[in-house]
Amino acid sequence: MFGNSLSILYSALLSDLKSMDIRNRNISNANNPSYVKEEPILETLGSVGGVRVSDIRRISDEIMQAQLLDVKSSYSAFDELNKLVEALSPYFEETSGVALEDYINNFFQSLHDFLREPTNEAAK
Hints:
The protein folds into three domains: 2-60, no CATH class; 62-93; 94-124. The protein has a two-stranded antiparallel ribbon with strand order 1-2. It contains three helices and two strands. 0% of the residues are buried. It is rod-shaped. Helix content is 57%, strand content 14%. The chain has 124 residues and is α+β, with helices and mostly antiparallel strands.
């Protein structure tokens, strides 16, 4: 009977030691934004008596996780858009002195001239 009590006490002390270790990690990483808090899950040892740490559960803030996922998604989308702009930018450079904007303006000016005088052969 005395040995069984010592066994129960020993398992309780080991479980408490593991639980304190987990809580100490939570405290020491309190200022680390990427650290996820942990919580010990205790279970009984059945008819023998005593307790043990059966698992360690991660505690995460669902709202913060959703915001983080949203930010990462937005970053990824903007990163892909930036890569596309960088890939297309050589085609729109003004190396010849005539910009793409000038070509577009000339096109619409010609279209405007044609619509104003549809019978004008030069506008056609």
